[in-house]
Amino acid sequence: MKLDIGCGLKKEPGWIGIDCRPEVKPDLLRDLRRGLPFTDNTVDEIRCNQVLEHLASDDLMFVLEEMIRVCRPGAHITISVPHVNSMGAWSEPTHVRCFHERQFRMLTSPSYFGGRIRIVDLHVDRWRQEDDTEDRANIICIYEVC
């Protein structure tokens, strides 16, 4: 099973699209702050694209814990969020947080989630749109569940 958290209008075949906005007609209409309605160790892959920046600290940690809980050992979790230095980090009025690469590294510490995740890839994707005067950047992190 593959989950696309925050799928928006870009649902792909073979993935279960999860979103909190009914207008995008997700496969599963869900507020992540209520958890993920899946059994432990049943998910093979999760994509979470441009979602976590909308969550408060307590909600963020709960949602990450839920993603790890539902994933099988060896599953991958791919997260994309705006980089703290990106124009996009604070230009969206619904963003309540921004991220730096170090935060993603720290989450692999045994202090968080009992060391149940490791980083497979972590990089910053930078670009500039034609109408932008500043660079934009996203952090892309891929975790493997142990």
Quick structural gist:
The protein is α/β, with parallel strands linked by helices.
Question: What does it look like?
Answer:
The chain has 146 residues and is of the alpha/beta class. It has one domain (2-145): 3-Layer(aba) Sandwich (Rossmann fold). The protein is built from 3 helices and 7 strands, in the order ββββαβααββ. A 7-stranded mixed β-sheet has the order 3-2-1-4-5-7-6. It is globular.
Q: Helix and strand string, N-terminal first?
A: EEEEHEHHEE
CATH superfamily assignment?
Answer: Vaccinia Virus protein VP39
Distance between the termini: 17 Å
Shape: globular
Q: How are strands sequenced across the largest beta sheet?
A: 3-2-1-4-5-7-6
Structural class label? alpha/beta
Name the CATH architecture. 3-Layer(aba) Sandwich
What count of domains describes the coordinates?
Answer: 1
* Count of helical regions: 3
Largest sheet: 7 strands, mixed
Quickly name the level 1 CATH class.
Alpha Beta
Mean pLDDT: 93
Radius of gyration: 15 Å
- Give a count of the beta strands, DSSP E runs of length 2 or more: 7
Strand content: 25-35%
Residue runs with pLDDT of under 50 for 5 or more positions: none
Q: What's the CATH topology name?
A: Rossmann fold
Features:
146 residues, alpha/beta, Rossmann fold, seven-stranded mixed beta sheet, 3 helices, 17% helix, globular
